[in-house]
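hey m, so remember when u said the tokens were messed up on ur end? i reran from scratch. heres the input so u can diff it against urs
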Amino acid sequence: MKKIDYAQTFLERTLNLFRCPSCQAEVVTVANHTLTCVNGHTFDLSKKGTLYLFMKPAGTEYDGDMLAARRRMLQRGLFDGIVQAMVQAIPETAKTLLDVGCGEGTPLAKLVNLSPQLSSAIGFDISKPGIALASDYQERLFFCVADLANEPFATGQFDVVTDLFSPSAYQEFERVLTQSGTLIKVIPNANYLGELRRLLFGSDDPHHDYSNQRVLDLFLSHYPDADVRQVAYTFPLQPGWFDDLLTMTPLHWGTNADPTGAKSRGLSQITVDVTVLVARPNA
């Protein structure tokens, strides 16, 4: 089945998950590869089976090379420990999932593959190149370009919202979640990719160290009863993988970064160190 036909089939059975990003009204039909709301606004599926639901021009610094390198590293297993922790937090009764800032889609695809109870999962991102890549994954999955602050999804329809390293819009998360819905947010800790950070920046550079305490504190101010779990492991780097690791992260964009020096030294392993936050905002 062509991607565009698969996407139409997905939408036909999940129209209740969407709302119009233009007028916030109910979406009522999908026919001839076009989504239509009750007020007549239309949105056409791309040939790759994705929807553009952003109501203003969207820009991102994540280019094709960066996304392709990220995909290769994630397919090799860099985030598998994170995905496993997220899977453990998904209730056995969950059927619908929304992934915020899904990027090129590999973490969501792996998560859904390990969560047979999920019948439908939607990933969205601001990056059109990322969503185009994500369309390679189809099983129980759909991808679209959308706005975090104006999510084109219906109220109270998602059992789970996941947020892996993306910004948050807690009011929107609470709106789209069911009454008993679960929010899973993953934030990087101080030693996340620490070996790479120390290769790129000298000890006197502010980027040499890192803290996400402010993001953690904000989450806990919203959901003080949240479950907090640290996930940390080292991931071995085979020959030739370091260039992809360097390319997939914005760390090398830093003004004082030394990517040439980092490449000459390389790494044999890298640390993944994150905090997984789980809350039930509407319970």
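this time it looks ok to me. The mean pLDDT is 93. if urs says something different then somethings off w ur setup not the seq
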